[in-house]
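A.,

Following up on our hallway conversation. Structure tokens first:
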């Protein structure tokens, strides 16, 4: 049995309608990023379990009010009518922006469905069905990519050969000169030098070398200890500054929220529900936008916006 659904943010397929019978379903979608201003809803058809999903079409809702992820709500209605046509509508419940489209399911079963590729071409060129080539034209087109072989002048070949011999001679001369210089340096290095030192002089040289090595090790140790102490002190100071800044920011945020809550409480309107009232009508009266009914329901903890009790009092928050 085929199904029609949407792809979620994690790439998984979520079936909405099962089969091709007359039906209609409504979903409430939300954003996955903070301050997300648009939402693209991609429709797919799962005709056979072992085959890839078939792309149907997309709906795009623009100008979504900037808000943290998960706060905006988009009503998405998907249905199939008696003629076998698929209709879908997406409405931003906060701004009222909506998009809709209608697709024939019969056309999706035809063989000329366009497959969307995983890549894009900047430009595509090719022959159409009526743009055919004759045999001579094909031969000419092939010959255009064959490079003509040109003859090389004899005098230029001789000149290049002459310059090549000169370059080879210079290279051999430089190599021979370098070889002689290396041999002379090696002979000088291997010539023994007789140096006579007394036992006391040898001991003094070794003592000075050991003293210099010890001092160098001590200086390196002290320098490393000072650097570690300075780094630790800088880290502690940075942590203290970050903690103080975080505490100040938390206090300022708490004060701001308290002020906003106080101001919001001051603007809240109490309304007693009368027989025949609906949240849709109340939202239209106070906000001039019936799609704001969800705001009233959420603020008063009403789980089912279609079921409200006459005689009860609800609070209408400011916009």
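Then the amino acids I'd put at each of the 319 positions:
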């Amino acid at each position: 049995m085929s199904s029609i659904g949407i792809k979620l943010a994690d790439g998984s397929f979520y079936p909405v309608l099962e089969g091709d019978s007359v039906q209609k379903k409504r979903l409430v979608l939300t954003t996955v990023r903070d301050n997300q201003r648009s939402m693209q809803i991609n429709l797919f058809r799962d005709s056979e379990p072992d085959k890839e999903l078939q792309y149907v079409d997309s709906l795009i809702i623009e100008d979504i009010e900037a808000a943290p992820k998960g706060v905006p709500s988009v009503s998405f209605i998907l249905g199939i009518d008696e003629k076998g046509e698929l209709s879908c509508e997406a409405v931003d419940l906060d701004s009222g922006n909506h998009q809709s489209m209608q697709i024939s399911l019969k056309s999706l079963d035809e063989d000329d469905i366009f497959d969307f590729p995983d890549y894009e071409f900047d430009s595509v060129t090719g022959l159409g069905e009526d743009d055919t080539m004759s045999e001579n034209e094909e031969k000419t087109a092939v010959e255009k990519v064959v490079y003509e072989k040109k003859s090389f002048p004899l005098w230029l070949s001789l000149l290049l050969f002459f310059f090549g011999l000169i370059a080879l001679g210079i290279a051999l001369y430089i190599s021979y000169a370098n070889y002689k210089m290396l041999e002379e340096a090696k002979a000088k290095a291997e010539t023994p030098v007789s140096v006579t030192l007394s036992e006391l002089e040898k001991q003094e040289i070794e003592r000075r070398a050991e003293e210099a090595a010890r001092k160098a090790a001590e200086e390196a140790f002290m320098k490393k200890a000072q650097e570690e102490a300075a780094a630790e002190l800088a880290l502690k100071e940075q942590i203290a500054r970050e903690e103080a800044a975080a505490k100040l920011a938390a206090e300022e945020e708490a004060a701001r929220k308290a002020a906003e809550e106080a101001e919001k409480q001051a603007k809240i309107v109490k309304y007693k529900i009368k027989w025949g009232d609906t949240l849709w009508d109340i939202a239209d009266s106070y906000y001039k936008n019936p799609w704001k009914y969800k705001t009233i329901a959420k603020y008063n903890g009403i789980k089912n916006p279609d079921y409200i009790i006459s005689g009860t009092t609800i609070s209408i928050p400011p916009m």
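Residues 68 and 317 are 19 Å apart (CA to CA). Curious whether your intuition agrees with the design.

B.
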